[in-house]
Amino acid sequence: MADLGQRSVSRRTLLKGSAAVAALGGVSAFIAACGGSNATPSTAVSASVAAPASAAPSVAAPSASAAGTVTFGSNASDAVPKKAMADVMTAFTAKTGINVTINTVEHNKFQDTINAYLQATPDDAFTWFAGYRMRFFAAQGLATDISDVWAKIGANFSDAFKTASTGDDGKQYFVPLYNYPWVVIYRKSFWAEKGYQIPKTIDDFTKLGDQMKKDGLIPLAFADKDGWPAMGTFDILNMRMNGYDFHIGLMAGKQKWTDPKVKAVFQKWAQLLPYFDPAPLGKTWQEAAQDLINKKAGMYFLGTFAGQQATDPATHDDLDFFAFPTLGTQYDSEMGIDAPIDGFMVSAKAKNLDGAKALMEFLGSADAANIYLASDSNDVAANKQADTSKYNAFQKSSAAIIAASGKIAQFLDRDTRPDFAGPNGMQSFLQTFLKAPNQDLDKFLTGIQGFYDSLPPQ
Predict the structure, then answer these.
(1) Is 261 helix (H, G, I), strand (E, B) or coil?
(2) Which residues does 192 contact at the CB level (< 8 Å), separation at least 6?
(3) pLDDT tens-digit profile of 264-302?
(4) Is 346:124 a contact under the CB 8 Å cutoff?
(5) Nearest to 209 by CA among 222, 218, 221, 198
(6) Are residue 174 and residue 187 in the same domain, yes or no?
(7) Is residue 325 within 8 Å of 202, Cβ to Cβ?
(8) pTM as predicted
């Protein structure tokens, strides 16, 4: 996985969604942080619950002080990853005797309120993303150094994954679980019926889109009600047109949004928008995925987690994907993609620190990866000891496309600072562009750069 360690992280700005009620009748920190009213009951994983039959965790027994209950904040709010996360925690409890209380918060809400959450009364451990966003919270003193855990699990991961889990101070703050590529997804049987062929170039793509329009389809499913999905489209166009190094430099503030290269990206995007869903701001990514599944749309550019929406096994088996087409530039050979890394961190205010570290050690095991992916087969394991023999075709294709990519980014809101990527920043700017793609782009981009420049130094 080339250049994996260089990715800056933070996809969608954490904690978007309602709060969860903590076990024992307490109020979750998410409620206080989010002000949410749609609470989701916490899942208390008890030691009396048997682990899945396939689970045979091989983590060391926790220290005597690692006991009691660990609270765990989770953004795995959709049905498939929610079950997968619960399966992992059940296996951990069965192995160690340490209970886990899972506070599940709607994914987008989780991201949007993560700062307030970590500064208030956070859970002991929580789901998060590798790279920039991880490093940001570590630098702010909001996360616990888990280098001692990495001394035990380090052999399970490549140097690239370790780098992606390391803060600016050289210490580790993150345990990776899986990653997934952003690709163009389609239904194999439907394409065979229509005689469609995989487009290699952008000209092939637009010709295919024209045919799909004639066939009464939305060529490319698209949704941006939640603000973050459009970031993936910007990422891929910018990497295809201007290269990975320019893209990452732009995310880091080393390049300017007023650069003509960025303007060219939005001009190209405007040319392609007639092939996108014409009303994306009223749809969630799940609804757009259903357009693909229900054969209302011919393609969908998103992360492979879109496969979660294909709950019928036969339908899921009918899904396949390909890399976004080349644009005829010098950067075609890079085949840069977004392939974000998801995993876990320990909050700086963890009340059960020993228990949280024992959980991190388990989450860094191959057994944890195997258990998770047995339920959520839309991702590929970060752990190099994980069992890949049971990968389905979707996962095998994911692994292959990541391996074939010369440059891998995390995602716009993981590769840049959170106050720039969030609802008041790029999410809003991109929605403004989608509403009026033919607007004065010089003025539009000057606004983006002005907003970036107005942010406080880090």
Answers:
(1) helix
(2) none
(3) 999 999 999 999 999 999 999 999 999 999 999 999 999
(4) yes
(5) 218
(6) no
(7) yes
(8) 0.78
